[in-house]
Design brief:
Radius of gyration: 29 Å
Strand content: 5-15%
Shape: elongated
Low-confidence stretches: 1-7, 54-69
Helix content: over 70%
Order of helices and strands: EEHEHHHHHHHHHHHHHHHH
Distance between the termini: 92 Å
Structural class: mainly alpha
Strand order of the largest sheet: 2-1-3
Mean pLDDT: 80
Length: about 400
């Protein structure tokens, strides 16, 4: 069974001067501040500041900061490195070839600097920690475990698989959300065209014919006139509401309360818990498979959970597991019942990594099914809403035509 007694060394954020007068920043792991300073000096760096980071600060970066093409480049760099190391290529050559496979400026700059540092004698994991904007703590920890066990190629391969899965998962979420957003934009644009173009011209034509327009038509014309004359005020108001709401929701207390409340909502709560469970168990399984001890892997994997309430629950669960509490008991109120039981069986059988990955795959499929159902419901809902708006406009116009005809006869 995977060891649970090994605690992850603390992390220190440093700022140091190089021999040519430049400045570098990064994060490294050390048993104490003195060891962190000595580690920097061995790299021919002059420490300026070396400060202990909080656990939340390090884990809050999640399992990766990059997006889109940069994530794909990072995965490609990692997989190329794994392939070359497995083929027996020396580290310097493997890093040089892997660098040629990436085009994203951020990943390319980090790859160049990692190669320079490794040639100068720095470990690959420590070189990665110098670029926290590209490599999350999970990456450096996996590489450290691979170097310590002599299986660096295996660690890189696991990381590349994880990054590929993560990129594909994020793309599926974005694609699922893209269609409803486009439908909403089209519906909004169509409504504005009716209010600002069609209705004013139609009401002007009927007014020229004489007669009194019915109430529904007058209300519709008034709304169109207000939007045409005061659109800038409406836009400013919308921006202020969005900005104020975002600022309010970003405060830690409000955000934590909202995330906790959201878990009790119908459908949304189950979806968010399944998503968080999938993210956590996927990271946990990969890290355990890479050779990290349970508590270290647990704390790194929980960085991929965006729900504040679930992340706090996972932190408490990690403390309980460290005190010897069974995994199923510690996670019973945080993760889904299925995930808790799979992790418990894995803990008992010594297959925690494999069953964590199985739990991740199961919950990812559940999330995908929920997304398909949701997007399938959103389309007819938007059609009904837009059709209702068009129907109200058409009804108001027909009432106006009947009223004018009645006045002319």
């Amino acid at each position: 069974m995977t060891s649970v007694g090994v605690q992850e060394p603390p992390r220190y954020r440093y700022r140091a001067a190089t021999t040519d007068g430049g400045m570098v920043e990064g994060v490294l792991q050390a048993a104490s501040r003195e060891q962190a300073v000595e580690h920097l000096r061995r790299q021919q760096l002059v420490p300026v500041t070396v400060d202990l980071t909080t656990p939340d600060a390090s884990s809050g970066r999640g399992l990766g900061l990059l997006r889109g093409g940069s994530r794909r480049d990072l995965a490609l760099w990692t997989r190329t490195l794994a392939t070359l190391l497995a083929a027996g290529a020396p580290m310097d050559r493997a890093l040089a070839v892997a660098r040629t496979q990436v085009s994203h400026p951020g990943v390319a700059a980090a790859a160049d600097d990692i190669r320079r540092r490794v040639v100068a004698g720095t470990s690959v994991g420590d070189a990665m920690r110098a670029h926290p904007e590209v490599f999350a703590p999970m990456h450096a920890a996996m590489i450290d475990a691979g170097e310590a066990t002599g299986a660096l190629d295996r660690a890189c391969e696991l990381l590349a698989d994880y990054l590929d899965e993560d990129s594909a998962w994020r793309e599926q979420l974005q694609t699922a959300l893209l269609y409803p957003v486009l439908m909403s934009l089209v519906a909004t644009l169509g409504t504005l065209v009716l209010l600002l173009v069609v209705v004013p011209r139609f009401s002007s034509l009927l007014s020229d014919l004489g007669g009194t327009l019915p109430l529904s038509t007058r209300v519709l014309v008034a709304v169109g006139t207000a939007v045409a004359q005061w659109w800038w005020l409406l836009l400013v108001g919308a921006v202020l509401v969005v900005a104020g709401g975002s600022a309010w929701l970003s405060t830690p207390a409000v955000r934590a309360a909202l995330h906790a409340k959201r878990l009790s909502w119908p459908v949304i709560g189950d979806f968010e818990r399944a998503l968080a469970t999938a993210r956590f168990t996927r990271g946990l399984g990969v890290l355990l498979d890479g050779g990290l001890p349970l508590l270290s892997a647990w704390r790194l994997a929980q960085g991929g959970v965006t729900n504040v309430a679930i992340a706090a629950g996972l932190r408490r669960a990690a403390d309980d597991v460290g005190r010897g509490v069974p995994v199923a008991t510690a996670t019973s109120s945080v993760l889904s019942p299925l995930a808790s039981q799979l992790l418990a069986i894995g803990e008992e059988s010594g297959q925690l990594a494999a069953l964590a990955l199985r739990a991740a795959a199961t919950h990812e499929r559940a999330v995908q099914r929920t997304l398909r159902v949701a997007t399938g419901l959103i389309e007819p809902t938007l059609i009904v809403v837009f059709g209702g708006i068009v129907g109200l406009v058409a009804l108001a116009m027909l009432q106006a035509i009947y009223a004018v005809n009645a006045g002319l006869t």
